[in-house]
Specification:
The structure is a homodimer of 214-residue chains. Chain A has 214 residues and is of the alpha+beta class. Chain A is 40% helix and 25% strand. The first copy, chain A, has a 4-stranded antiparallel beta sheet with strand order 1-8-3-6. Chain A has a 4-stranded antiparallel beta sheet with strand order 2-7-4-5. In chain A, a hairpin with a 5-residue loop joins β4 and β5. In chain A, α4 crosses α5. The longest helix of chain A has 29 residues. The interface between A and B is large, with 38 and 38 residues. The structure holds a DNA duplex (30 and 30 nucleotides).
DNA sequence: GAAAGTATGTTGTAATTACAACATTTTGGG
DNA sequence: CCCAAAATGTTGTAATTACAACATACTTTC
């Protein structure tokens, strides 16, 4: 198991190596590998597992019965997912979680939280609170990216956010075209088309997933 | 101040009346009234206040420079808002908060959390965690309501959710037409038009904000 | 380095939505 | 009860998007 990534995670902030090792044991930490495209959770499942990405990345997505996919979030190395479902263990998942690329996930049983002593649990809960509040902001930002009614507006809203995050007008995005389309809730072909127009209009330059805002 | 609503809130679950009274003092609880349409927070503001609705309701919304409104959430009596910003006090708000109707809000200073004793703080943090995880699920559900590409799909996705929540095919929704349109991210006139068609098609019946799924 | 497979770009048409303008209904005072 | 204001419904047209079909480019594997 890749310990160093976990040690630097928000969850274990303020804990020393010994404590982390004990916690991993107490929470029944188990790592599992998935190939690109594999489904980690399906809509309707129940889980008490807090999940941590030690390698690769996963998409949180909703797939309707007509095969339309909506990507709500992309969770990369060093980040958590399913925290809401782990902490509210009677709520069935509303989403699917899929491996966006080959990846490794560590599962931590939140049911076992109850067995921890008060001090440790309090510190963990405080860190969990940070995780959930940040996740909230993440979910909100997707709403801003999909708020514009037109495709160009959505692309710009998204690219601007990434640009601000990376402190640069030039950056890579973590999505391929199909994923970006599913994230922005537009057709892939319409997205490709609009990106071409935006380049012709001198708004952006892009090649694969490298973008520059002009 | 309307104490009873606060006493039944998730935040104070497990606390007795004396403790709550002390906490309200320690967190500098202050109530303020707003008229319908008033702006409670504007995008870009910084706050450390956890906000609780004691009467009426507020909308969490994003307003772009062309006057387009997107409603992310409607927060009613007995619920909290701004918890993410209160707990991450350097993050400027991405949203506006407006009074959807005449309302009263209690503001609780999260900065003052640090002054509480460990036990009390731990219990509060655990309750805050419940608030943020539930808010996460709420934000997710809006994503499902706006996921369908077509207006009819969005309306049905939303109405189905409400129907399940209320355990009935007949129910009231908390939105007027303009709010529902801004929540589903569609034009008001298109929404009205589609609702008419859906009635003609025998899918639903509705009058004002009372709906029935057939 | 050729072939197969995957990802991305392009185009045309049908369907849908945006927007504006106006009609009708409902609501809240006076 | 009437009026004014607000909310909701209706309609037509221009603009945009969905969808399918295909072209091109890039990757991977043998």
């Amino acid at each position: 198991m890749d310990i160093s990534v976990l040690h630097n995670s928000i969850l274990f902030k303020g804990f020393d190596d010994t404590e982390i090792a004990e916690l991993l044991k107490a929470l029944n930490a188990a790592e599992k590998k998935y190939n690109k495209g594999a489904m980690i959770f399906s809509s309707g499942e129940i889980t008490d597992k807090l999940c941590f990405v030690t390698a690769g990345g996963v998409t949180i997505e909703s797939n309707d019965m007509w095969g339309n996919r909506t990507i709500l979030n992309l969770v990369g190395k060093g980040q958590f997912f399913a925290e809401s479902y782990a902490l509210l263990p009677d709520v069935p998942m509303l989403v699917d979680v899929c491996a966006a690329e080959d990846c490794s996930i560590v599962f931590l049983s939140m049911k076992s939280l109850a067995d921890l002593n008060d001090t440790i649990r309090a510190r963990l809960l405080a860190n969990l609170l940070t995780i959930t509040t940040r996740k909230n902001l993440h979910l909100s930002s997707r709403s801003f990216h999909t708020a514009p009614r037109q495709v160009r507006g959505r692309i710009m809203a998204y690219l601007n956010t990434v640009s601000v995050q990376k402190h640069s007008r030039e950056f890579d995005i973590p999505f391929d075209r199909q994923q970006l389309a599913d994230y922005l809730n537009v057709e892939r072909s319409v997205l490709s088309n609009e990106l071409s127009k935006m380049q012709r209009d001198g708004l952006i330059r892009c090649r694969k997933n490298h973008f520059e805002i002009i």
